[in-house]
Amino acid sequence: MNPTPNHAVIQPAPVQPALDCEVAITGADARQRIVDTAYGLFARRGIRDVGVNELISRAGVAKATFYRHFASKDELVLAFLEQRDRQWTVDMIVADARRRGGTPAEQLLAIFDVFGDWFRRDDFEACSFINILLEMGATHPLGRASIDYLARIRGHIQQLAEEAGLRDAEDFSRSWHILMKGSIISAAEGDADAAKRAQAMARTLIEQYEP
What is the pLDDT of residues 125-177, one digit of tens each? Predict the structure, then answer.
């Protein structure tokens, strides 16, 4: 018996592969996508203001994928700090200062030229290591990690001071780092010339440590 129009045979629809927000994202890509998303959010807003659900949504990954790569939010923050050190400290500050200065002393001073450009950018977000240290506290694991990364910055300054032949390079680096951190805070307060002011004091500091 042929089916009538009222008894049409309904063919099952072809099964489509399950789609979610992770299509075509490999494991390594998914991890980097999460870190890149966290980078922008943590740098602008800090740690406590950004929740895991927002990170997952903005990264476009599934919750299971997030926790496959990061057992906790704190673990992701540590990955963010590592990337921040690589992109901000090494690639932006140190590398750019070395390109701008012809001698180690000029490269030290050029740090504040780099800062001057950075302070005027629309996306200036101050120093994440300082921000997280103040937000989480020095005894929190993330605060301690931030202290370690700040120490790495001093290490770069100490190396430049040694190359410049300055006396007591370790002590010099601590004083220089105070100028760097102070200028960042002043810029966050709205002083667009903070880098220029710090650079003037930095010239005097170099003179004090010359042999």
Answer: 999 999 999 999 999 999 999 999 999 999 999 999 999 999 999 999 999 99
Cα separation of 84 and 80, whole Å? 6
Q: Report yes or no on 108 lying in a domain.
A: yes
What residues contact 168, with CB distance under 8 A and at least 6 apart?
209
User: Computed over its alpha carbons, how large is the radius of gyration of the chain?
Assistant: 25
Backbone angles phi, psi at 8, to 5 degrees: -65, 140
Sign of the dihedral through C-alpha 157, 163, 166, 170: positive
CA dihedral (138, 141, 142, 147) in degrees, to 10, reads: 50
**Where do we find the tokens 């963010």?**
80
Domain hosting residue 59, numbered range: 19-71
CATH code, domain with 161: 1.10.357.10
Round to whole Å and give the CA distance between 144 and 13: 57
The token pair at 176 is 């220089």
Residue 2 counted as domain residue = no
Report the CATH number that the domain containing residue 34 is assigned in CATH.
1.10.10.60
Domains identified in the chain, total number: 2
Task: Based on the fold, state whether residues 113 and 182 are members of the same structural domain.
Answer: yes
DSSP 13: P
CA distance 21 to 159: 46
What pTM did the predictor assign?
Answer: 0.84
